[in-house]
Structure formats: C-alpha cells, structure tokens
Amino acid sequence: NCSTNAMRSIGSAHTDPFSALAGAAAALYGPLHGGANEMVLRMLNEIGSINNVPAYIKRVKAGEFRLMGFGHPV
After folding, report:
1. Boundaries of domain holding 42
2. Is the pTM of this model over 0.85?
C-alpha cells in the first residue's frame, strides 16, 4: 500500500527511521489511502440502519455513488 511503499522507499535511502515514518504518515493524509476510512465511516452514518442497506446498494448499482471500502489493492 501507499504508506508502506513510502516508508520502504525513504528507508532505502538510509535516512533515519523518524523521517521514513514521517513520510509514511504523510502518505496516509491523502483521501485515497488514510482518508478512505473516513469515507467509509461517513457512508455508514449515511446508511444509518441495517434496514436501509438494500436501498443503499440499489443506489450504488444505479451508479449514483461508489461503495466505499472496496477496491483497495493488496
């Protein structure tokens, strides 16, 4: 993932561990990595109840918006 790659890349330059960790933490700041979990929490709050899941999924399938928390490459 992005933050792991950042830490390994920075560390491969033989920098100190604190600088490598700072780079990894900076990678988490982006909306497609660390910010993704915030989008999942917003989505769950929007759904509100398990009873609302089928209607929510129907809207996702209709292309109104994306289902957050899926599609993260490993």
Report:
1. 36-67
2. no
